[in-house]
């Protein structure tokens, strides 16, 4: 790990939060994140409709049921279709983890009837047909998605291809929600904002179901999708818990720490993720009026879990730890200490060890705490 800088971070203060002023403080921080980092989540009256496609299928020897839902979001002129792969324990109602995936629902399970994304997909890491989804990628990432383990522990999982909501490419990003009619203003949202909105949209749709515990919904994501999970959970109090894995810059790690990925690098490589103002803090992160510990604090008093990997220097695991520790003070001021962190050996990935710790945390602090 890179040596820690001896620069004083001088983080924006999170001192003195009380239950009485919490809602105002949190609102203020969310506004700052909107204006300077992620962009404003538009207040729009898009129509959201949901249907089920295909047959419900028994999975894991009958312990679970897999469904495919289709959410259509329309501005009256154009619409965006989001495919949801939903796996639930037969014995419900169940807590549900809501997660975006990088390459398509068909990559998280080998099951032949899971729909391929219709739109643009990245042409890296998994097989594709140019920028179109390919059958050869079916189940390609299934090892990272332990659906059977989740089912056996009583958890459901809803996953959506992030590109259904906003394709992860500056030239294609408007082929999702960013292409729908929305108010124009000085702080437009980018892909991270859209992905976060998508997570909330899925949560709201699932919360209506009898087989889902609406009070035990968890936003979870890895890396760029961990950044989106944090921003979703910070804004949407309907999430009972938020989990970020190796989310790094613009996620759980502190922007002010001069370690790993910084504003200049991230806004150059991924200009479409943030509101344009964020790039203006390149090399002058100290001028940001917020830092990421306030994002983690904004989730309080709901449960928060941050996972880091020791060799993932690009995500600055120490920065992720320091942000979590700073946020813990706010969670404690609000009477909750449901904040977890782990640092495991190894590099950038959401692997079995991460899942094990995350599920243990959720079982203890979210789903099995009748006296909370
Ligand atoms: C990297 C990016 C990180 C992180 C990562 C990922 O290229 O610099 O911010 O999001 O991608 O999503 O895997």
What would you call the structural class? alpha/beta
Helix proportion: 25-40%
For the termini, the CA-CA separation is 38 Å
Q: Low-confidence parts lasting 5 or more residues at pLDDT below 50?
A: none
Biggest beta-sheet profile: 9 strands, mixed
Please provide the ordered H/E string of secondary-structure elements.
HEEEEEEHEHHEHEHHEHEH
Overall average pLDDT: 96
Integer-rounded radius of gyration: 19 Å
Briefly, what CATH class? Alpha Beta
Strand tally? 11
Q: Remind me, CATH topology? A: Rossmann fold
Mind telling me which CATH architecture this is? 3-Layer(aba) Sandwich
**What's the name of the CATH homologous superfamily?**
Alpha/Beta hydrolase fold, catalytic domain
Question: Strands across the major sheet, in which order?
Answer: 1-2-3-7-4-8-9-10-11
Shape: globular
Quick take:
This protein is α/β, with parallel strands linked by helices and 372 residues long.
Question: How would you describe this structure in keywords?
Answer:
372 residues; alpha/beta; Rossmann fold; two-stranded antiparallel sheet; 9 helices; 11 strands; binds beta-D-galactopyranuronic acid
Question: Explain this structure to me?
Answer:
This protein is of the alpha/beta class and 372 residues long. The chain has a single domain (22-367), classed as Rossmann fold. The protein is 27% helix and 22% strand. The protein contains 9 helices and 11 strands. It has helices spanning 22-38, 147-152, 162-165, 191-207, 224-235, 263-269, 292-297, 317-333, 352-367; strands at 47-59, 64-74, 79-89, 94-101, 128-129, 132-133, 156-161, 212-222, 241-245, 303-309, 339-344. The strands form 2 sheets. A 9-stranded mixed beta sheet has the order 1-2-3-7-4-8-9-10-11, sandwiched between helices. Strands 5-6 form a two-stranded antiparallel ribbon. β5 and β6 form a beta hairpin. α4 (191-207) packs across α5. The relative contact order is 0.15. The mean pLDDT is 96. Beta-D-galactopyranuronic acid binds next to α6.
């Amino acid at each position: 790990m890179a040596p820690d800088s001896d620069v004083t971070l001088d983080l924006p203060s999170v001192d003195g939060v009380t239950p009485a002023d919490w809602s105002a403080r949190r609102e203020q921080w969310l506004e700052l994140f909107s204006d300077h980092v992620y962009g404003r989540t538009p207040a729009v009256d898009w129509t959201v409709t949901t249907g089920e496609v295909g047959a419900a299928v028994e999975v894991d020897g009958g312990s679970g049921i897999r469904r495919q839902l289709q959410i259509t979001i329309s501005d009256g002129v154009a619409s965006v279709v989001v495919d949801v792969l939903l796996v639930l324990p037969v014995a419900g109602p169940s807590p549900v983890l809501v997660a975006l995936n990088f390459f398509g629902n068909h990559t998280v399970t080998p099951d032949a009837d899971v729909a391929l994304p219709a739109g643009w997909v990245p042409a890296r890491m998994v097989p594709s047909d140019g920028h179109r989804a390919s059958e050869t990628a079916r189940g390609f990432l299934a090892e990272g998605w332990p659906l059977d383990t989740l089912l056996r522990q009583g958890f459901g999982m809803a996953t959506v291809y992030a590109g259904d909501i906003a394709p992860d490419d500056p030239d294609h990003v408007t082929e999702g929600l960013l292409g729908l009619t929305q108010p124009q203003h000085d702080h437009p949202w980018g892909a991270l904002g859209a992905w976060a909105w998508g997570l909330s949209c899925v949560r709201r749709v699932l919360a209506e179901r009898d087989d889902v515990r609406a009070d035990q919904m968890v936003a979870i994501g890895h890396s760029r999708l961990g950044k989106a999970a944090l921003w979703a959970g910070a804004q949407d109090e309907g999430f009972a818990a938020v989990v970020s894995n190796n989310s790094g810059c613009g996620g759980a790690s502190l922007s002010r720490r001069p370690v790993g990925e910084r504003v200049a690098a991230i806004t150059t490589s991924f200009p479409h993720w943030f509101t344009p103002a964020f790039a203006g803090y390149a090399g002058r992160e100290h001028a940001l009026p917020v830092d990421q510990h306030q994002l983690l604090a904004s989730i309080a008093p709901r449960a928060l879990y941050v996972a880091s990997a020791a060799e993932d220097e690009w995500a600055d695991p120490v920065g992720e730890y320091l942000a979590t520790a700073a946020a813990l003070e706010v969670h404690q001021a609000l009477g909750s200490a449901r904040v977890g962190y782990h640092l495991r050996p190894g590099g950038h990935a959401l692997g079995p060890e991460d899942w094990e710790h995350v599920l243990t945390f959720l079982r203890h602090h979210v789903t099995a705490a009748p006296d909370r």
